Amino acid sequence: MELSLAQVQTATNASVLNVRAPGSLEEMRARGWSIDSRTVNPGDLFFAIQGDRYDGHAFVSTALEHGAIAAVVKESANDLDGPLLKVSDTVEALQQVARRARQEWGRPIVAVTGSAGKTSTKDIIAELLGTRLRVGKTGGNFNNHIGLPLTLLRMPENAEVGVVEIGMNHAGEIRHLAGIASPRIGVVTTVGYAHVEAFDSIEGVAAAKRELIESLPESGVAVLNADDERVLAFRGAHAGRTLTYGFSASADLRATELKLEAEGASFTVCGVRFETRLIGRHSVSNILAGLAVATLFDFDIRQLARTVAALAPGKMRGERRSWRGITILDDCYNANPEAVRHMIDVLCEQPAQRRIAVLGEMLELGQMAEKLHRDVGTYVANAGVDVLIAIRGVSRFLAEEAREAGLSDHAAFFFEEPENAGAFLRNFARAGDAILFKGSRGTHVEKALATMEA
Description:
single chain, alpha/beta, Udp-n-acetylmuramoylalanyl-d-glutamate--2,6- Diaminopimelate Ligase, Chain: A, domain 1, UDP-N-acetylmuramoyl-L-alanine:D-glutamate ligase, Protein-Tyrosine Phosphatase, Chain A, 3 domains, 9-stranded mixed β-sheet, 6-stranded mixed β-sheet
């Protein structure tokens, strides 16, 4: 999206310094948007954001040297040169400009949220819609108060639909971000314990996810997972249409004849047989969400079977491969209790001599952390996992509870550092094993995998 600096000034009520003449604001157009001076392209508007480690104001001169058309800075920044737009809060200004750009663009947006599966579901929706429409989407998981505005600002002007991901770590955040994105379709995948640290209970998490559906216009559509009771309860949050998907007999778009295999799955929807390389029942649920959204754009799902068959997992998001005769399930990107259970089920579906779960600490669980790790430990022991390797912090309770539930001391291990777990696995793993690697982003379970394979 391109905007003139006059439009930016109007959106943010900024004070303008060091611009040639007032009239030139109309002529000066931002052709791109950046918060990182290292990646500034000529014509970008640079927003000086103060983060936890760095203050963007220290890099304004670098951004301008790299060709930024101007920089948006805080009012108190008095020692900077070059064309500047001064505002009270640069993050708020970024959001205000994104809201203006979204209004200018004006095409429908699909917003996806959920405790698990939102990034994969967002990507699936974009792939399916992209078979006929020009689609702009969230890159990676740019889903927060900075990432979502950047996604909207970087939306291709010729895109016919946008697909965005909305995350949260506190009450009110989804409502605020939905107010910026103005989605016409809201998709909720699951409600679970992810980010429960910021809430009193899972009901608090549910209330936060519900904000997306409450934010939809009456002409919008809520797309809800019929297999999650907390999500299904959101039907009352929206006066407009609701479309449900899932395996439940009550789902509007229902999968039947589900067959889960080591390397994928097959299922039937509306008489059409689908096959996918994505692994696990949860992946089929994500595909159903994508098919449901596609029907809202008048797609014939019979024409989407080939696209579903070609879907591939994202990096560290359920990738399956072989290494020295060992099946590797790389799901290192993130973790919460529900997502871990999903992947434990996938691990136990693998044909293997031994099934080994390498599980990192699950973060942002607050006062419930010990209990939730213990619950997963019990699940692991009862699911048929042969060996558990827990990594870092509170995950020691996961290993402890797995032993209590039946795993022997020689089959449940704890390591504080992922590299040490990987070094252990290098000697312990053997051909015929299947190994799942999964943990929260901050646990860096991928380092265990890399060390094992080194």
